[in-house]
């Protein structure tokens, strides 16, 4: 096993993998192998994947007697009668370093081999440096990614808040969140298309916290469009019509799109550009594309789309980029056409498709603009009902704007992006400042932490409480409440590995053009975190009596909750949601 300094941040995946190697009595074949693979990868030494031998516990019930478990069924495959030899037990308990959590003890019970973590040592290791290493991905990557959102391209009648559908809004938010996740991992991210500054679409996006690239209203992509046209004209996949050949779009589309393309094709002069898209993906060995893609007549809006892609990838001449097309399922066929046209023009960047399921609104049909207005109005009404006349002025306008954005983002991002989202827009009181119901609940609990620290700072100013000392001066064995271990073990420690997953998705080979970025995980993580934090906060009185013999436990809790505050800020930052400091 690769020798890594003892100060390496604690990680769940390296712990599970190291435990698996120790249980089998084998070491990885390559240096550092235990820390370089995902939790579902197969051990190079043979046998079951690492995550089949050991399971991390997460429920409060199971965490009362164990932190990791190797099930009896797995022990029976390794040892006669499932009896773990003393030498193996000793090897398991002697694991150190490489991100492995410090271990306190183990025992074989009916359900398997139980393993307990040294919790006081874990608190000390995580909180010693302010937990900053746990707020960022464990691996920094290099490379360039272009995120293309077809919903924002200027196809007639052009994007506007009044015509943007809820399904298209979902793709914009998925694209925005994906870009933030990839940037966290060190990747250079650019967005496509650029939008004219000062337009209605940009004002709408800004109200949701989306920071999309803009260009002056006078900007023109005419030169790049001309270059794209020339590249397609010289493409080896270009086809010439034989006399009397019918021109068409070459694919199975909806009636309106096919009729529009045929009408435009009928107005083209002889010699109109037509490209055989099926040849492109067949001859270049590109998997996952619709076999009904055929010969496509190149339309003006397609050339404009390709010119925007060229603009976004302009800095990627020496380094190949990965291009993510983030689209609704209704636009997938059209975007496959665009992708193959770009390939036919000579582009060699890797293109992957992030396909989003539809957004359903039973009993009603709202545009993205109407949806935002509805949620903003409901958020204001709920705030006035709770806080009364104080809901006025610029501060409250900003709070309502952020809370509305949080509501919308959690509604549209908490579901796996390939699955449909169903919104109940007719239910009265569509948003609430109470209850574990997504974005509002998360923002409320983040605000509770700020309120707690405001109270603590006032106590310090009055001389009631001491300043929070260095971790080395605290005895973390005072953190015995089960909710404290849940917050550390289920959230603070695993968060960096959660951030790794979007980049890992891009590394996966095979499966065709589609890719799953797991954009739902941060929202689900924040909701689960808020439920467990709320339960803990309602049960434990953090700021106790100002008595010296109680200070150690209080200061340990405050140090942990300060790290939890940073965790909220880090996770919300990937959603472009600024924290609300007072509610």
Write the layout of secondary structure elements.
Elements: H1 12-24, H2 33-36, H3 50-53, E1 55-56, H4 60-63, E2 68-71, H5 72-78, H6 86-93, E3 103-109, E4 112-117, H7 119-127, E5 144-148, H8 166-184, E6 188-192, E7 195-196, H9 200-207, E8 214-215, H10 222-233, E9 238-239, H11 255-267, E10 274-276, H12 277-283, E11 295-297, H13 300-312, E12 321-328, H14 332-344, E13 350-356, E14 359-360, H15 368-387, H16 394-413, E15 421-422, H17 439-461, H18 482-492, H19 495-507, H20 521-539, H21 548-573
Parallel strand pairs: 5-6, 5-12, 7-8, 12-13, 14-15
Antiparallel strand pairs: 1-2, 2-4, 3-4, 9-10, 10-11
Helix pairs in contact: 1-6, 10-13, 12-14, 15-16, 17-20, 17-21, 18-20, 18-21
């Amino acid at each position: 096993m690769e020798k890594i300094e003892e100060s390496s941040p604690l990680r769940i995946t390296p712990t599970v993998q190291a435990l698996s190697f120790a249980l089998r009595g084998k070491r990885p074949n390559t240096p550092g192998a235990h820390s370089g693979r995902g939790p579902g990868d197969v051990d190079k030494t043979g046998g079951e994947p690492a995550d089949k031998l050991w399971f991390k516990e997460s429920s409060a019930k199971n965490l009362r007697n164990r932190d990791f478990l190797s099930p009896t069924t797995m022990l029976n495959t390794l040892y006669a009668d499932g009896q773990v030899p003393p030498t193996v037990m000793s090897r398991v308990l002697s694991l150190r370093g490489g991100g492995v959590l410090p271990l306190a003890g183990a025992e074989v019970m009916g359900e398997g081999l139980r393993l307990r973590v040294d919790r006081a040592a874990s608190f000390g290791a995580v909180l010693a440096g302010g937990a900053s290493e746990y707020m960022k991905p464990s691996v920094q990557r290099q490379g360039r990614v272009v995120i293309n959102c077809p919903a924002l391209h200027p196809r007639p009648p052009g994007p506007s808040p009044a015509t943007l559908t809820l399904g298209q809004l979902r793709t914009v938010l998925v694209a925005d969140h994906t870009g933030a996740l990839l940037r966290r991992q060190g990747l250079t991210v650019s967005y496509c298309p650029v939008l004219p500054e000062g337009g209605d679409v940009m004002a709408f996006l800004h109200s949701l916290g989306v920071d999309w690239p803009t260009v002056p209203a006078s900007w023109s992509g005419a030169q790049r469009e001309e270059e794209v046209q020339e590249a397609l004209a010289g493409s080896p996949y270009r086809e010439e019509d034989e006399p009397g050949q019918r021109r068409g779009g070459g694919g199975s589309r909806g009636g309106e799109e096919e009729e529009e393309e045929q009408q435009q094709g009928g107005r083209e002069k002889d010699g109109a550009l037509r490209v055989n898209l099926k040849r492109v993906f067949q001859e270049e060995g590109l998997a996952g594309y619709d076999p009904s893609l055929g010969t496509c007549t190149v339309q003006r809006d397609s050339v404009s789309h390709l010119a925007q892609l060229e603009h976004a990838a302009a800095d990627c001449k020496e380094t190949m980029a990965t291009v993510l097309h983030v689209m609704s399922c209704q636009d997938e066929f059209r975007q496959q056409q665009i992708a193959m046209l770009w390939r036919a023009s000579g582009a060699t960047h890797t293109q992957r498709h992030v396909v989003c399921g539809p957004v359903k609104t039973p009993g009603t049909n709202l545009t993205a603009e109407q949806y935002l207005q509805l949620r903003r109005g409901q958020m204001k009404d709920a705030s006035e009902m709770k806080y009364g006349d104080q809901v006025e002025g610029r501060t409250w306008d900003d709070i309502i704007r952020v809370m509305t954005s949080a509501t919308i983002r959690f509604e549209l991002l908490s579901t796996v992006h390939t699955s449909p989202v169903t919104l109940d827009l007719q239910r009265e009181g569509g948003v609430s400042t109470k209850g574990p119901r997504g974005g509002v609940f998360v923002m409320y609990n983040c605000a509770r932490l700020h309120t707690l620290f405001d109270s603590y700072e006032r106590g310090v100013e009055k001389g009631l409480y001491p300043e929070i000392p260095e971790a080395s001066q605290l005895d973390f064995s005072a953190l015995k409440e089960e909710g404290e271990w849940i917050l550390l073990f289920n959230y603070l420690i695993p968060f960096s590995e959660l951030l790794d997953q979007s980049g890992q998705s891009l590394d996966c080979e095979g499966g065709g053009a589609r890719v799953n970025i797991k954009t739902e995980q941060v929202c689900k993580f924040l909701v689960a975190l808020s439920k467990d934090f709320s339960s803990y906060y309602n049960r434990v009185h953090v700021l106790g009596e100002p008595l010296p013999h109680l200070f150690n436990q209080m200061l340990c809790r405050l140090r942990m909750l300060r790290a939890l505050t940073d965790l909220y800020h880090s996770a919300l930052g990937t959603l472009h949601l600024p924290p609300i400091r007072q509610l």
